[in-house]
Design brief:
With 546 residues, this protein is α+β, with helices and mostly antiparallel strands. It has helices spanning 3-28, 35-46, 49-59, 63-88, 90-108, 116-140, 168-172, 181-213, 293-297, 330-336, 402-405, 423-426, and strands at residues 233-234, 278-283, 289-292, 301-309, 320-329, 350-355, 360-364, 375-380, 383-384, 394-396, 410-416, 438-441, 448-450, 453-462, 468-474, 482-483, 485-486, 496-504, 507-517, 539-545. The strands form 4 sheets. Strands 1, 4, 5, 8, 9 and 10 form a 6-stranded mixed beta sheet that branches. The chain has a 5-stranded mixed beta sheet with strand order 3-2-11-6-7. It binds ligand MTE and molybdenum atom.
C-alpha cells in the first residue's frame, strides 16, 4: 500500500464517519435534515424541468436513490482527494472540509422544518469527527501535511486512542509508512464499519419516525374524523358493480393507495406532525387566516371521486390513478379567508399552493370556485393521506394536472396575480393545465400473441370534469371504428372503463382507442409530447392473432 493510497483511504473513511454520524442524528431528531438527501434535493431543484420530470417519471422510484448514491459516492471521492491533499498541506485539507461544511449547511437550510442550532451542531460535529478520524489515520501512517502549524508530537494525546495491537513508536514515527499494513487496515476498516452502522441506524430511525408521523389516526380511518372537533363526513356509497368491467388486465376502478402513481420532487417526503401543522391563507384575500388541523376538520367534509393524472404521462402511460379523497371544499376554506368568486380581481387571479418543502403550484383561482369539487384533502381511500401522497393535507383539483394544482404537504395558500410563475412554469411547462381527454388500452399490450376468437380489448378513458360519453376501438389502424361497451360513469371527475369484444381472426393488427368527452369532443389524434401541455394522440397497440 503506497502512502498516497493510505492517505486517500484515510480521507474516505473520515468522510464515511462524518456521513454516518450525520445520518444517525438526523434519524434521532426530525428537525435535523439528512445532508445527502438535502444536497440531492437542491440538485433536482436546479435541474431544468424537462430533465427532472423525465428522470422522475421514467426511472420512477429508482431515480432518487441513484441520485443520492451519486452524491454520497462523489463526496467520499472528494474526501479521498482531501486525504491525499493533506499529505502536502493540512491547511488545504481543512479548507476542503470547510467547503464541504458550507455546501452541507446551504443545502440543509433550504429544507422545511429545520432546527437551526441543532442542525449547525450536527453538521459541524459530524464533519469535525470525520476530520479527526481522517487526521488520526493520517497521523498513524505518519502522513500528516508538512505545513501543519504544530506537527504532532510523538506519543501525544492521540496515543491513548490506539488499539492495543498498534505500537505507538511505529505509529508516530515521522515520514513514510509507519503503522504496518494490517493495523492500518484494521483501524480504517473499524472506522468505516462504524460509519456504515451509524448510517444504517439513522436510516432505520428516520424511516420509523416517518411511520409515527402518519399513524396518528384513529383506527376507524378518516371517515369518522381524525380529531374531536371533526364534523360529520359525507361518505360515498361503494361504487356500483356496473362501474367496473371484469376483464384481466383492467386497472382497479379505485386505485389502492399502495399502487397509486407517485410524482414529486421530494427525495424523502417531509415528515410533518399534524399537531404542529397549519395552513396559512394569505395574499390578496380580505381576511388572511391560519387554520390548524382541528380548524380544518371542523368545516364540512366530504368524500369525492377524483382521477388524478400527471402532465408527464405518455400516451398509454401509468401516471394516472383514481382516488376516493376525503376533504373540505377548497371554496369553503377560501371563504374562511373572505374569498368569493365575485370579489376576485387582477391581484387574486392565481391561487398558489405551497408545500412544507417549498414546492409550489398555481392555477386560476376561479377554477376553485366554479362548482367543481376541488378539495383540501386529508384522506385517501378511506384512510388518512399516506406520507408520500401528502400527509397531513394536500390539494386535489378535478380536471387539472397535478403539477399546477395538487400540492402535497400543503402549508400555504396565497392569492396572487397571473404574472407570478411557479416551479414547473419556469421550467417550460404550460401555465394552464387542463387534463386532456385520453384513453388507454389495458387488456392487450404491444407484441401480444393472441389466439383467434373473442378478444376483450378494454381499458380506461378520462376527461375529468367533463366525463366520458363514448369510447371507440379500431383494430385496423384507425380505418374503421367500433363502439366499445362503457361501464357506468362513477363520476364526471373519474376515469371510465370500457371494453370492446373483438372477434379476432389470424393476422397482424394495429389496435387504437379514442374517447369522446361529455361535451361531445373527441380526443385529438394529433400526437404531442407531454411537455408543455400533456401528451395527446391515440394509444396504439400492435398484436398478432394466431
Ligand atoms: N409538494 C409537492 N406536491 C406535488 C408535487 C411535488 O413535487 N411536490 N408534484 C405534483 C405533481 S407533478 C403531481 S402529478 C401530483 C402527484 O401526486 P401523487 O404523487 O399523490 O400521485 O402531485 C403534485 N403535488
Ligand atoms: Mo405531475
Amino acid at each position: 500500500m503506497n502512502t498516497r493510497f493510505r492517505a486517500a483511504v484515510a480521507g474516505v473513511v473520515g468522510g464515511g464517519v462524518a456521513f454516518g454520524l450525520a445520518e444517525l442524528v438526523q434519524g434521532l431528531y426530525e428537525l435535523i435534515p439528512s445532508i445527502p438527501i438535502a444536497v440531492s434535493q437542491r440538485i433536482i431543484e436546479l435541474m431544468p424541468g424537462g430533465l427532472a420530470t423525465e428522470a422522475i417519471g421514467t426511472l420512477g422510484s429508482a431515480a432518487t436513490p441513484i441520485l443520492v448514491s451519486v452524491v454520497v459516492l462523489s463526496t467520499l471521492a472528494f474526501c479521498g482527494f482531501l486525504g491525499v491533499l493533506s499529505r502536502s498541506s493540512t491547511l488545504l485539507g481543512l479548507g476542503g472540509v470547510a467547503l464541504l461544511a458550507a455546501v452541507a449547511l446551504l443545502a440543509v437550510f433550504s429544507e422545511p422544518f429545520v432546527s437551526p442550532v441543532f442542525t449547525v451542531l450536527a453538521v459541524l460535529g459530524a464533519l469535525g469527527a470525520g476530520t479527526a478520524v481522517a487526521g488520526f489515520l493520517l497521523d498513524a501512517s505518519g502522513l500528516r501535511g508538512s505545513e501543519s502549524p504544530e506537527p504532532r508530537e510523538a506519543g501525544g494525546s492521540g496515543q491513548g486512542r490506539l488499539p492495543e495491537g498498534v505500537r505507538a513508536r511505529e505509529a508516530y514515527s515521522s515520514g513514510g509508512i509507519a503503522v504496518d499494513r494490517r493495523s492500518f487496515l484494521l483501524l480504517s476498516g473499524g472506522a468505516a464499519v462504524a460509519g456504515l452502522a451509524a448510517t444504517g441506524a439513522g436510516r432505520l430511525l428516520s424511516g420509523s419516525a416517518g411511520e409515527v408521523a402518519s399513524s396518528g389516526a384513529t383506527g376507524a380511518g378518516v371517515a369518522s374524523g381524525g380529531g374531536s372537533a371533526a364534523s360529520a363526513v359525507e361518505t360515498l356509497p361503494a361504487p356500483p358493480p356496473g362501474a367496473s368491467i371484469e376483464v384481466p388486465g383492467m386497472p382497479d376502478l379505485i386505485t389502492p393507495s399502495d399502487d397509486f402513481y407517485l410524482i414529486d420532487t421530494a427525495i424523502s417526503s417531509p415528515r410533518i406532525n399534524r399537531d404542529r401543522w397549519s395552513l396559512n391563507i394569505g395574499g390578496a384575500v380580505d381576511n388572511p387566516i391560519e387554520l390548524s388541523y382541528e380548524d380544518l376538520l371542523s368545516l364540512p367534509a366530504r368524500e369525492s371521486d377524483i382521477t388524478l393524472s400527471c402532465v408527464s404521462n405518455e400516451v398509454g402511460g401509468g401516471l394516472i390513478s383514481h382516488g376516493r379523497w376525503t376533504g373540505v371544499l377548497l371554496s369553503d376554506v377560501l371563504a374562511e379567508a373572505g374569498v368569493a368568486r365575485d370579489k376576485l380581481g387582477r391581484a387574486s387571479e392565481q391561487l398558489i399552493g405551497r408545500s412544507a418543502d417549498g414546492w409550489e403550484a398555481g392555477f386560476r383561482t376561479e377554477l376553485a370556485l366554479d362548482g367543481r369539487e376541488a378539495l383540501v384533502a386529508f384522506g385517501m381511500n378511506g384512510d388518512e393521506l399516506p406520507t408520500k401522497h401528502g400527509y397531513p393535507v394536500r390539494l386535489v383539483v378535478p380536471g387539472l394536472y397535478g403539477y399546477i394544482s395538487a400540492t402535497k404537504w400543503l402549508t400555504e395558500i396565497e392569492l396572487v396575480d397571473w404574472d407570478y410563475d411557479v416551479y414547473w412554469i419556469k421550467r417550460g411547462w404550460a401555465k394552464e393545465g387542463p387534463v386532456q381527454t385520453q384513453s388507454r388500452i389495458d387488456t392487450v399490450s404491444n407484441d401480444d400473441e393472441l389466439s383467434a376468437g373473442t378478444v376483450q380489448v378494454g381499458g380506461v378513458a378520462w376527461a375529468p370534469t367533463r366525463g366520458i360519453e363514448r369510447v371507440e376501438v379500431s383494430t385496423d389502424d384507425g380505418e374503421t371504428w367500433n363502439d366499445a361497451r362503457l361501464a357506468e360513469q362513477l363520476d364526471e371527475d373519474a376515469w371510465r372503463q370500457y371494453v370492446y369484444e373483438w372477434d379476432a381472426s389470424p393476422g397482424d393488427y394495429t389496435i387504437k382507442a379514442r374517447a369522446t368527452d361529455g361535451e361531445g369532443e373527441t380526443q385529438t389524434e394529433e400526437e404531442a409530447e407531454p411537455i408543455p401541455s400533456g401528451a395527446t394522440g391515440y394509444h396504439t397497440v400492435n398484436v398478432t392473432v394466431r
